[in-house]
């Protein structure tokens, strides 16, 4: 079985290449904003709907009129930027149809457009452009040249798309590859339900706890100092830009730490269990602000805000996404179940009541007096629900 995987590598551009990459991002951002304004104006003034095909056809005229600007970059990468806008509009109309908050596509400021995509390797870009170089790997980008890559692991499969991403002062290349052979692991015969939490990131049904490192909380004081320092800086000054870069670097470090921890925790689960059952969590809904208005605020707003911050710091969504694709590659099965009442029901007798959950960590059934760690009890319920769902699917 073959799967699709992505690889992310650090770029080491020269100063001239870094300037060219910055110019590439700026020009693609301007193209995105101009295309968005084109759509808005056409519909507002004439009631005409502009689509991707119309704007893609205009690219050759835009490039001809700007030989030292837009014409420097790959035609296919500019088409990818226009497709990005088209996807934003498609998502907007989907939200409108479903009755959700629409969120009309916005113009991209300088700090909100950090990725350019090349849809096909060999069309405006070339991975491993100097294959016979004895010590280094390079990627060739139209308008930039051969940029050195810090390739820390082997790329497997066929490179299909290539993206360049800016994170603070660093540049990365992201490869999306098809036909990557799945590395199936030997069967263990073990199954597990996992309960996501804040005190422990993951609790398994057999009583294993994965510590939540709370990376954001560990960096909170440094971030607060950096925010206070930023507030004292004059707008549009060099010192303010330096302060903004410092904050971005701190957040980037937290993000990398969280991602690294999620990879390690997911890999450990995939190695130990053949089937992994987790709750189908709606994290966006769970981390919404406390209900209420300015005149009639909701209750426990500060507590809800702190809980939201802790959930986001734990990175449940990142962890579950990584777990899903690692399991697919290893030939494991991941099952998502409805989380309703998994923390209130007794794993021994099935009695469900709010009073069963004595504290955050203690569970005591009011019917059969069964006692257990609350997260372990929930993980057992999750596992049972997942296995029942699996059996029902097989029977059907």
Automatic annotation (TrEMBL):
Could you tell me which residue ranges the Cas12f1-like TNB domain spans? Answer: 316-382
- Please verify whether the record's keywords include Acyltransferase: no
| GO biological-process terms attached to the record | DNA recombination; transposition
Which InterPro entries does this chain map to? Cas12f1-like_TNB (IPR010095), RNA-guided_DNA_endo/Transpos (IPR051399), Transposase (IPR001959), Transposase_put_HTH (IPR021027)
Transposase putative helix-turn-helix domain residues are 1-45
GO MF annotations for this entry? DNA binding; metal ion binding
Q: Is Zinc tagged as a keyword? A: yes
In this chain the Probable transposase IS891/IS1136/IS1341 domain maps to 183-289
User: What's in the keyword line of the UniProt record?
Assistant: DNA recombination, DNA-binding, Metal-binding, Transposition, Zinc
- Give the record's family classification: In the N-terminal section; belongs to the transposase 2 family. In the C-terminal section; belongs to the transposase 35 family.
Q: Which PANTHER family match?
A: RNA-GUIDED DNA ENDONUCLEASE INSQ-RELATED, TRANSPOSASE
- Descriptive protein name: Transposase
List the source organism: Nonomuraea cypriaca
């Amino acid at each position: 079985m073959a799967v699709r995987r992505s690889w992310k590598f650090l770029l080491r551009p020269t100063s001239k290449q870094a300037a060219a990459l910055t110019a590439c991002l700026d020009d693609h951002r301007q193209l995105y904003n101009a295309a968005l304004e084109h759509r808005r104006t056409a519909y507002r003034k004439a009631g005409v709907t502009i689509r991707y095909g119309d704007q893609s056809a205009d690219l050759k005229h835009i490039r001809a009129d700007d030989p030292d600007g837009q014409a420097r970059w790959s035609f296919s990468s500019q088409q990818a930027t226009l497709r990005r806008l088209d996807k934003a509009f498609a998502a907007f109309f989907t939200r409108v149809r479903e009755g959700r908050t629409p969120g009309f596509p916005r113009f991209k400021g300088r700090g909100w457009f950090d990725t350019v995509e090349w849809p096909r390797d060999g069309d405006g870009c070339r991975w491993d452009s100097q294959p016979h170089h004895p010590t280094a790997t390079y990627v060739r980008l139209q308008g930039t040249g051969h940029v050195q890559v810090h390739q820390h692991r082997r790329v497997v499969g066929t490179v299909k798309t290539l993206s360049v991403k800016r994170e603070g002062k660093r540049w990365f290349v992201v490869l999306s590859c098809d036909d990557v052979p799945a590395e199936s692991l030997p069967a263990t015969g073990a199954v597990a339900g996992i309960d996501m939490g804040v005190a422990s990131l993951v609790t398994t049904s057999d009583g294993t706890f994965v510590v939540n490192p709370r990376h954001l909380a560990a960096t909170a004081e440094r971030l607060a100092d950096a925010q206070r320092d930023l507030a004292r800086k004059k707008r549009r000054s060099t010192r303010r830009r330096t302060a903004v870069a410092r904050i971005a670097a701190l957040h980037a470090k937290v993000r990398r730490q969280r991602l690294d921890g999620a990879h390690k925790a997911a890999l450990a689960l995939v190695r130990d269990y053949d089937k992994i059952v987790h709750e189908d969590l709606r994290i966006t809904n769970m981390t919404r602000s406390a209900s209420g208005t300015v005149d009639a605020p909701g209750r426990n707003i500060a507590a809800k805000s702190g809980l939201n911050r802790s959930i986001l710091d734990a990175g449940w969504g990142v962890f579950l996404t990584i777990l899903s694709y690692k399991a697919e590659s290893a030939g494991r099965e991941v099952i998502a179940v409805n989380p309703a009442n998994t923390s209130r029901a007794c794993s021994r007798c099935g009695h469900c009541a709010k009073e069963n959950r004595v504290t955050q960590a203690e569970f005591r059934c009011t019917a059969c007096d069964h006692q257990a760690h609350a997260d372990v009890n929930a993980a057992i319920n999750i596992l049972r629900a997942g296995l029942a769902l699996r059996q029902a699917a097989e029977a059907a």
